[in-house]
Amino acid sequence: MLLHYMKIMLLVFGQSLVKRSQKEHLMKQVSISIERTDSYNFKIIDFETEKEIKLKFPDWQNEIDFLSFRDNGNIIMVNAKYYRAYVFKVKRKDNTKWVCRSRIELQYFKKIYITSKGKLIMYNDTIHEITVWNIDDLSAKTRILIEWCHVLQHIEISDDEELLAVLTENKKINEKNLYVFSTETGINISSLSTTKLVIDRFHLIASKKGERLLYRYIQRSATKYNLLDPYSLINPINANKLFGNKQIQEIYIIKLDKIIYSKEGGVLIENLVPDNWIEYLRKTLKDTNSITTPSKNTVDLITKITEESSYDPPYSSEFEGKFLKWSLELSDESVNLKFLKMMTSLRLHVLVYLSGLINFLTLEYIIIGMIVMIL
Predict the structure, then answer these.
(1) 56 vs 18, 101, 237, CA distance in Å?
(2) Contact (Cβ atoms closer than 8 angstroms) between residue 119 and residue 135
(3) Where are the transmembrane segments (predicted)?
(4) What is the C-alpha separation between 128 and 144, in angstroms, rounded?
(5) In angstroms, rounded to a whole number, what is the distance separating the alpha carbons of residues 249 and 95?
(6) Interatomic CA distance for residues 191 and 147, integer angstroms
(7) If we measure between CA atoms, which residue out of 267, 306, 353, 328 comes closest to residue 47?
(8) Residue 134: Cβ within 10 Å count
(9) Is residue 90's pLDDT more than 70?
(10) Residue (of 202, 262, 246) closest to 228 by Cα position
């Protein structure tokens, strides 16, 4: 019934963990845009109580163009006409009372995106610049320039907000460029230029397990999905199996490795990325592209060893993981990570030299060199 008058504006499903009284509560809200039947053009509903969350603005504002739930439980809203942002936070434990924490005057933007960690990604079409702003300290973290002959089509950010995927288009020559940038440095990690591939939508998924760029495209009136390594953007892998028997409609959202979509009048939230992601990539999807995300055990072990003054027992000189056997050699000048034996059919030899001054806990490290050879 309400669906005839409302459409889902953002179903960023408030899977935000908010700490209160040493406990963590899972907040579940949804925002919907509505026809102007009252003072506001949107409503926020709590899934659990089925009650509307009332908000009071510090000014006469009653129209919101963009809305997003933050990981810390706050709500960020933006009015595009007056370039103004609002940050609301919960005041009552039952989530029924919210107050405006801050009102922020923004610079001009043509497009804007709000991230779950509180970043505003703004595109200025007059100077072709993408700026990543931190809404907490109001500082510009990253500035990215795109080609003057291209216009921005869409932006996606990884769940850990370390990678930024950007799609631009030159309509005169029917060319589309897909880029992946580091949000920390603004460095262009990889790029793909095409005049044939019609990329409909794309997402950065599995940032904690083995990052992939998932894109949807239309071929002969059929919807298809492919996966790419975001660090190279080559060798696309068919990913239709990833969606299984899900009957995905036009409106869907991929967030936190879950997919949210409507079916038969209801809204479903399902896992998109399986727990055994790497095994699924290798065996089910036959994806042999590079996987850049190391396991937590590997990172913890390297961190522990490199922080010690000497490399003595009880540590072994060799370590065996799920896919390979490797050794770690430590000297005063460097750390040599050597892969000795593959536990799978894929033969991969990697030699990594790391500075002996590595401090993984503070991320103050220097990568001297990395050589990857696939035989």
Answers:
(1) 21, 11, 48
(2) yes
(3) 350-374
(4) 9
(5) 31
(6) 13
(7) 267
(8) 15
(9) yes
(10) 202
Instruction: Give yes or no for a contact between 128 and 113, defined as CB atoms under 8 angstroms apart.
Output: no
Give this prediction's pTM.
Answer: 0.71
| DSSP type of residue 224 | E
* 32: Cα separation from own chain's centroid: 23
Amino acid found at 367:
I
Question: Which residue bears the tokens 């042999």?
Answer: 288
325 close to 335: Cβ distance less than 8 angstroms: no
Asked which of 39-43, 127-131, 314-318 is least confident by mean pLDDT, the reply is: 314-318
- pLDDT(28) > 80: no
- Cα separation, 235 vs 276, in Å, equals 22
Q: In which band, very low, low, confident or very high, does the pLDDT at 351 lie, cut at 50, 70 and 90?
A: very low
pLDDT at 7: 38
Phi first, then psi, for residue 354 (nearest 5°) are -120, 145
| pLDDT greater than 90 at residue 352 | no
Q: Which amino acid is at 73?
A: G
4 SS3 class = helix
CA distance 219 to 223: 7
Q: Which amino acid is at 235?
A: N
Percent of the chain with pLDDT over 90: 41
Residue type, 243: F
Q: Tell me, what DSSP letter sits at residue 41?
A: S
- Could you tell me if 31 and 10 are in contact, meaning their C-beta atoms sit under 8 angstroms apart? yes
- Residue 78: pLDDT above 90? yes
Q: Residues 296, 297, 298, CA angle at the centre, nearest 5°?
A: 90
Distance CA 248, CA 261 (A): 7
Task: List, as one string, the DSSP characters of 269-317.
Answer: EEE-S-TTHHHIIIIIS---S------HHHHHHHHHHHTSSS--TTS-S
DSSP state of 38: S
Q: Give the pLDDT score at 298.
A: 64
Q: What is the pLDDT of residue 369?
A: 34
**Rg from Cα positions in the chain:** 23
Which residues face 349 on adjacent strands?
Answer: 373
319 contacts 300 by C-beta, under 8 angstroms: no
Cβ pair 143, 127 in contact under 8 A: no
268, 244 Cβ separation under 8 angstroms: no
Which pLDDT does position 319 carry in this prediction?
Answer: 72
- Residue 336 identity: N
